[in-house]
Amino acid sequence: MLSVRGLTQRYGALVALDGLNLDIAAGSFTALLGPNGAGKSTLFQVLSGLYAADEGEVTVAGCSLARQPCAALARLGVVFQQPSLDLDLTVRRNLRFHARLQGLCAAEAEHRIEALAERFRFTVLLDAAARTLSGGQRRKVELARALLHGPALLLMDEATVGLDPRSRQELLADLHAGVREQGLTVLWATHLVDEAVQADRVLVLHHGHLLADGPPEAVTQRLGGQTLEAAFLRATQH
Fold it and tell me: Where is the signal peptide, in residue numbers (predicted)?
């Protein structure tokens, strides 16, 4: 579903991503685990087309991001770390606006909005102003917005920052259910090890390099620790 080859991104003398290679299989939940400054957000900004990589190739569902950007980006849904709802609009109008950007007709947009609101349990909030929602409720709306056009690959960048434990748990449960039941592919960037433990696969990113790649247990052994947390802290202490 996602292929990255030789991806390099620099900010002056700082190399944020250094010849990165990775593949993400369809229908999987992959955690991109790394400390702050590891290059996670830079990777997501390149994958979502906000930055043009200095070097390398990105392919989404067989479409080159460089040569077929519209086709590649149409297969992506993104939830960034920073909240991005228009707080002066209602939830429904936020979702309608995104649907129009994606070229959905009004009738189809309304059908999908209602279905996603029911799926993520915010139907009663559809006509409430976005600014009245809690942090967890806003994240659910952002997740629904990212899924509105039916993407094949969902990018989640530190999506639980600022959420209470229950909201974090619910968000993760909803995404794992999407992987199991709808065949969704999720790339979840986080610095929280307890979120990565639940993933099918863990990629450990540090200073723009992949240190380990595999199921949580295999990554733990590869990095040399009794637990994934201990192994992660040991591998990224410098």
Answer: none
Phi-psi region for residue 49, left (φ > 0), alpha (ψ -120 to 50) or beta? left
CA torsion angle 177 182 186 192 (round to 10) = 0
In the chain, domain spans: 2-75+152-235, 87-150
**Packing angle between helix 135-147 and helix 106-119, nearest 10 degrees?**
140
Placement of tokens 């519209």 in the chain:
70
pLDDT single digits (tens) 140-191: 999 999 999 999 999 999 999 888 999 999 999 999 999 999 999 999 999 9
* Look-up of token digits 């349990």: 121
